[in-house]
Write a structure and sequence with these properties.
- The chain has four domains: about 115-295, no CATH class; about 335-415 and about 420-480, no CATH class; about 570-770, Ubiquitin Conjugating Enzyme, CATH 3.10.110; about 780-880.
- The protein is built from ten helices and 42 strands.
- The strands form eight sheets. Strands 10, 11, 12, 13, 14, 15, 16, 17 and 18 form a nine-stranded antiparallel β-sheet that branches. Strands 6, 7, 8, 9, 19, 20, 21 and 22 form an eight-stranded antiparallel β-sheet that branches. A six-stranded mixed β-sheet has the order 35-36-37-38-39-40.
- Strand 11 and strand 12 form a beta hairpin.
- The termini are far apart.
Length: about 900
C-alpha cells in the first residue's frame, strides 16, 4: 500500500521519502527546517534523525490531518477554506529490530486494529464515573529480562532512568510513545535497586530485553463533570485527586493531535493478530511489537460554499494558515450559528444588543462566498434561540444573504467538528440581560450518556456521538464544549500539583533522547510554504517587509506627513532623537523655564483652533484618573516635575500635525492623545484616542497606555479591552530601538510609533509572525478583507466619537469631522460605485460585494451624524443616503 509520491509544500510531521532506492527504511517525518542551507531534519523509521536537502523531498502523506482542522486546497492556498469532518487511516506496520532491520510486514491495518505500547497518550480524554479529564502525565513500569532468565521491574521508568542499548541515538515522540517496548534492548544504572521479579541482580546485568510495559500511574486534569458542567471553578472545587491509577479510568477518545505516525510502536489487536498469525514469526513472550512504517490517509472536507468532498488524499490539502491560527472573525462555515452585528438604528452597540435591550437576530450559515464575503443563512425566530427555552427544534423565520462583515459568531453556540462536549441536561438561565445569560448544568441521569463528540452540524442542530456509541441531535444550548487546550498548557496550569519530570518535555532535542512534541498544536510550526519562505521549529525570523497597499483613499488628503506602512521603528529614531529625555536632571534646568498655561478643557474656540499640544484641567473620564498613587505627580518633588515638563516640551515642539496631546496641570502623570488616521490606510480621517500615565518609575519604564476601542478590534495591536500591543511599551517582544530605552525613549516616540506602525496601510501583517505571509497566497487572501473590516470599524468608531467624544476633545472631534466628513463620505461613495476618478479617467477601486453591502448599512448613520454637526459639503451626501 505504498503511498503516492507528491511534490507539494512541506509541513511539520509530513511523511516523506528521501531515498527511493532503499525503500521503507528511508522514509521520515519532517521535524524542522534550517533556512540557512535549505535542509530538513527528519525522524526516520528506526528512531534515528537525519538531515536532508528540502527542495527535492517528495511527500507521501500528511500525518497531522485531524477532524476539526481547517484546510485549503494544496493547489489553491488562497481559495476557500474547508473544515475536516472525517479522517480514515490505514496503517502499514512491520517488525523492525534494534538494528533497523525490517522483518514481517502487514498492509492495510485500520487504526482500530492496533493499540499503543502505552495505552493512554498525553492529552487523551478519560472518564472516571461522572468526571471527564485530560491525561497530562503517564508513568510506566518496565519489566526487563536478562540472558540468564532474571527479570527486574524498573518503576517509573523515565528516559533518564532507562536508556536504549542501541549504538545509535534514538528519539521518540513523548505524547504518543515511550522509548521502551517489548523486544527492545535497554540499559540502566538502576537495575541493582529495582524490584526483582525473578532471580537477583548480578554485576553482568547491564543490558536486558523489555518484556512488558505497564502504566503505573496517571495524572489527570479534570475539565468537566455530569453535575457541574464545564465551568472550571465549579469543577475544581470538588474534582477527584489528580493522581489516578489507570484501572480507575475509562478511555473516551484521543486528543485531536494524538495521531498515528511513522515510528509509532504498537501491538496488533487479537483479531488482527489471529488473522495474520501465519505471516508473523513465532513468539511466546513477549508479544510481537510492530512499528508503523507507512500510512494511507483520506479526508472528508466541508467547504465554505457548502459542498462536501469525500475521500480526498491528505496531500491534496494544506493545513490552513499553518502554523498560525488564521481564522478571521468573518470566516464562517455551513452549520455555524451567527449573530446579526449590523449597526442598529438606535445605538451602534458593539456588545451586540440594541438600546432597548432586545437581542440581535441569530441564524445558521448555509453557505459562504469567500471571494465576495457574502453569507447565505437562515434566520431563526427569536423565541427559539433564547437560552433556557424548552423547544425541541429551531424555527426558521426566513432565508437571507448578508455581508460577512455584518455577522459575528455566536459565542455561546460555537462548536466545531470533533469537539468533545458535555450534555447540559437541565438548563437554567443566569443574568438579567440576554447578553449575560449563560447555561448552567444540573445533574444528568446516570443512564443518560453525558459526554460525546461532535460529528456533524445540521440545520442549526449538533449531531453528537456519545460515550455509549449512540448518536443524537441536540440544540447548541444543550451542550457545552470541554476544554480544548493542549495537554502541555493544562500541565503547566497544574505545575503546583504535578511533579516535574522528562515526560512530554517541549525541547526539540534533550538529554532524554526525545524530540519536541510535534503532535502538540502549540509546537506545530510551518516548515516550508508555497513560496519557499521558512522558519525553524524553535522560532520565527522576525523580518518585516512592505507590500503594495490593497486599499487606498480615492479623495482628499491629511495634513502632515504620510506615516503609512513604509515607516519602521528604526525610521522613527531620527524623528524623536531631537526630543530625547535625559535622566541627568542636574545638568539642564531649562525645563523649569517652560510654562504651559492651563486652559478650558472644552476647546470651543472657533473653526479648528486647537493647538497640537496644550495643558488643561484633567477630565473625569480619563482611564487612569483613579491611579494617582501609582504615577508621577507634582507631590513627588521637583525632579519628577522636571521630567514631566521635559516631556511636555518635546511634545510641544515636535508633534506631527495630525496628533493632538492634552496634558493636565492637576495630574502631571496623565496625558490624553488623539491621532488622525494616515492617508492611504483603512484608518484615514478617523480619530483614535489613547489615555496614558507615566508611572512612578518613569522614565525607567514606559508609560501605561489605554486605547478607547468602543468594543471594536480594528487592528491586531489594539484590543477591545484597551490594551496596546507594542514593543516600545514592553507589551510585545523587540530589541534595540524597538523597545523602551530609558534616557532615550519618550512619549513622542510612543505616539508617533502608534500612528505610523500600528495604524498602517496593511494592519493584517501586524500580527506576530504574519509578516512571513507577505506575497504568499494566505496573505493575499486576508490583507484586503482585513482592511475592509478595519475601514468599516473606523467608520463605526466615528459614529461613537460624535455621540460620546472623550471629555476635553469635544471640539477636536466636532471640528475635525466638520472639515473631513465630506471626504469620508466621498470615499465611501467611491467604494460603493466601485471606481474613482484618478485624474485621467476612472480607475477600478477593488473591494468585495460584502464590503459594499456592509458599507451601505453604515453610510446612512454616518451621514446623519455628520449632518448633525454641520459637516462641510455633506448636504448632497445626506440627500443621497436618505
Amino acid at each position: 500500500m505504498d503511498a503516492e509520491v507528491v511534490r507539494c509544500n512541506l509541513y511539520q510531521l509530513d511523511l516523506v521519502q528521501f531515498n527511493t532506492k532503499r525503500g521503507m527504511i528511508d522514509r521520515g517525518l519532517v521535524i524542522s527546517y534550517a533556512p540557512e542551507d535549505d535542509t530538513c531534519r527528519l525522524f526516520r523509521l528506526d528512531g534515528t534523525m537525519v538531515t536532508k536537502k528540502a527542495d527535492e523531498i517528495p511527500v507521501l502523506e500528511r500525518s497531522s490531518i485531524h477532524v476539526g482542522q481547517f484546510v485549503v486546497s494544496a493547489t489553491d492556498a488562497g481559495g476557500q477554506i474547508g473544515v475536516v469532518t472525517g479522517v480514515a487511516t490505514d496503517l502499514h506496520v512491520a517488525q523492525i529490530d534494534d538494528r533497523g532491520k525490517v522483518g514481517k510486514q502487514i498492509l492495510g491495518v485500520s487504526t482500530a486494529g492496533v493499540r499503543r505500547v502505552r495505552e493512554l497518550s498525553l492529552g487523551d480524554y478519560v472518564l472516571s464515573g461522572p468526571w471527564l479529564g485530560r491525561v497530562v502525565e503517564v508513568s510506566v513500569d518496565v519489566d526487563v529480562l536478562f540472558d540468564d532468565g532474571a527479570v527486574c521491574r524498573v518503576a517509573d521508568a523515565g528516559p533518564k532512568v532507562l536508556k536504549s542499548a542501541s549504538n545509535k541515538k534514538v528519539y521518540h515522540f513523548p505524547q504518543t510513545n515511550v522509548p521502551f517496548y517489548p523486544g527492545g534492548r535497554v540499559t540502566s544504572d538502576s537495575f541493582e535497586g529495582s524490584r526483582w521479579l525473578n532471580g537477583h541482580w548480578k554485576l553482568d546485568h547491564k543490558i536486558g530485553t523489555v518484556v512488558n510495559v505497564e502504566m503505573a500511574g496517571v495524572s489527570v486534569y479534570w475539565i468537566a463533570s455530569a453535575q457541574r458542567g464545564t465551568k472550571q471553578q465549579l469543577v475544581q472545587e470538588s474534582a477527584p485527586p489528580t493522581h489516578q491509577h489507570p484501572s480507575s479510568l475509562t478511555y473516551f477518545c484521543s486528543a485531536s493531535d494524538c495521531l498515528w505516525a511513522l515510528g509509532d510502536r504498537c501491538f496488533l489487536n487479537d483479531d488482527v493478530q489471529q488473522q495474520h498469525a501465519s505471516s508473523l514469526q513465532a513468539h511466546t513472550a513477549p508479544l510481537p511489537t510492530m512499528t508503523v512504517a507507512n500510512h494511507n490517509t483520506t479526508v472528508d472536507v466541508l467547504w465554505q460554499d457548502g459542498t462536501r468532498q469525500y475521500g480526498a488524499r491528505s496531500t491534496y490539502l494544506d493545513p490552513y494558515g499553518y502554523p498560525y491560527e488564521l481564522m478571521m472573525e468573518h470566516d464562517f462555515f455551513p452549520g455555524q450559528h451567527v449573530v446579526d452585528n449590523a449597526p442598529s438604528d438606535a445605538v451602534d452597540d458593539a456588545a451586540g444588543d440594541d438600546a432597548n435591550g432586545s437581542a440581535r437576530r441569530v441564524g445558521v450559515v448555509r453557505s459562504v462566498d469567500h471571494k465576495d464575503h457574502m453569507v447565505h443563512l437562515s434566520w431563526f425566530k427569536a423565541a427559539s434561540t433564547r437560552p433556557g427555552n424548552e423547544a425541541s427544534s429551531l424555527e426558521v423565520e426566513c432565508d437571507d444573504t448578508v455581508s460577512a462583515y455584518d455577522l459575528v459568531r455566536d459565542p455561546d453556540h460555537y462548536v466545531v467538528y470533533g469537539d468533545v462536549v458535555v450534555r447540559l441536561s437541565t438548563v437554567t438561565v443566569t443574568g438579567s440581560t440576554p447578553a449575560a445569560q449563560q447555561p448552567q448544568a444540573t445533574s444528568t441521569p446516570a443512564d443518560v450518556p453525558w459526554v460525546g463528540r461532535v460529528v456533524d452540524l445540521l440545520d442549526g442542530h449538533v449531531q453528537v456521538k456519545w460515550s455509549d456509541d449512540s448518536t443524537s441531535m441536540v440544540l447548541p444550548h444543550e451542550i457545552s464544549v470541554a476544554n480544548k487546550e493542549s495537554y502541555m498548557q493544562l500541565r503547566h496550569e497544574m505545575a503546583d500539583w504535578v511533579e516535574e519530570d522528562d515526560v512530554g518535555a517541549p525541547q526539540e532535542l534533550d538529554a532524554a533522547n526525545t524530540v519536541n512534541d510535534p503532535h502538540d498544536p502549540a509546537d506545530a510550526t510551518n516548515v516550508k510554504g508555497g513560496d519557499g519562505s521558512v522558519n525553524e521549529v524553535d522560532g520565527l525570523a522576525e523580518t518585516r517587509q512592505n507590500a503594495e497597499v490593497p486599499m487606498h483613499a480615492p479623495t482628499g488628503s491629511n495634513e502632515g506627513p504620510d506615516v503609512g506602512s513604509a515607516a519602521t521603528e528604526a525610521d522613527l529614531v531620527d524623528l524623536v532623537t531631537r526630543g530625547d529625555v535625559s535622566d541627568d536632571d542636574s545638568e539642564d534646568d531649562s525645563a523649569n523655564d517652560v510654562v504651559f498655561k492651563a486652559t478650558d478643557a472644552t476647546g470651543d474656540g472657533g473653526p479648528f483652533k486647537f493647538p497640537n499640544f496644550d495643558v488643561v484641567k484633567s477630565p473625569p473620564d480619563h482611564h487612569y484618573l483613579d491611579t494617582a498613587d501609582q504615577g508621577i505627580s507634582s507631590g513627588n518633588g521637583s525632579v519628577h516635575v522636571k521630567k514631566v515638563q521635559k516631556e511636555w516640551k518635546i511634545l510641544h515642539d515636535s508633534l506631527p500635525g495630525t496628533i493632538y496631546v492634552r496634558a493636565f496641570e492637576d495630574r502631571m502623570d496623565l496625558v490624553r492623545v488623539a491621532m488622525v488616521g494616515a492617508s492611504g490606510t483603512p484608518y484615514q480621517d478617523g480619530l483614535f484616542f489613547f489615555d496614558m500615565q507615566m508611572p512612578q518609575s518613569y522614565p525607567a519604564v514606559p508609560p501605561e497606555v489605554y486605547y478607547h476601542s468602543f468594543g471594536f478590534r480594528l487592528n491586531p495591536n489594539l484590543y477591545t479591552d484597551g490594551t496596546v500591543c507594542l514593543s516600545l511599551l514592553n507589551t510585545f517582544s523587540g530589541e534595540g530601538n524597538e523597545v523602551w530605552v530609558p534616557g532615550t525613549s519618550s512619549l513622542l516616540q510612543v505616539v508617533v510609533s502608534i500612528q505610523a506602525l500600528v495604524l498602517n496601510s496593511q494592519p493584517f501583517y501586524n500580527e506576530a509572525g504574519y509578516e512571513r505571509l507577505i506575497d504568499r497566497p494566505e496573505g493575499h487572501r486576508h490583507e484586503l478583507p482585513y482592511n475592509e473590516n478595519a475601514l468599516l470599524l473606523t467608520l463605526r468608531t466615528m459614529i461613537h466619537l460624535l455621540r460620546r467624544p472623550p471629555q476635553g476633545f469635544e471640539g477636536v472631534v466636532r471640528d475635525h469631522f466638520r472639515r473631513r466628513g465630506r471626504y469620508v463620505l466621498e470615499t465611501c461613495e467611491a467604494y460603493l460605485q466601485g471606481c474613482v476618478d484618478a485624474g485621467h479617467g476612472s480607475m477600478e477601486l477593488p473591494c468585495s460585494a460584502g464590503f459594499r453591502t456592509a458599507l451601505a448599512n453604515v453610510m446612512p448613520k454616518l451621514t446623519t451624524a455628520f449632518a448633525q454637526i454641520g459637516a462641510q459639503g455633506c448636504d448632497h451626501c445626506a440627500a443621497t443616503n436618505h
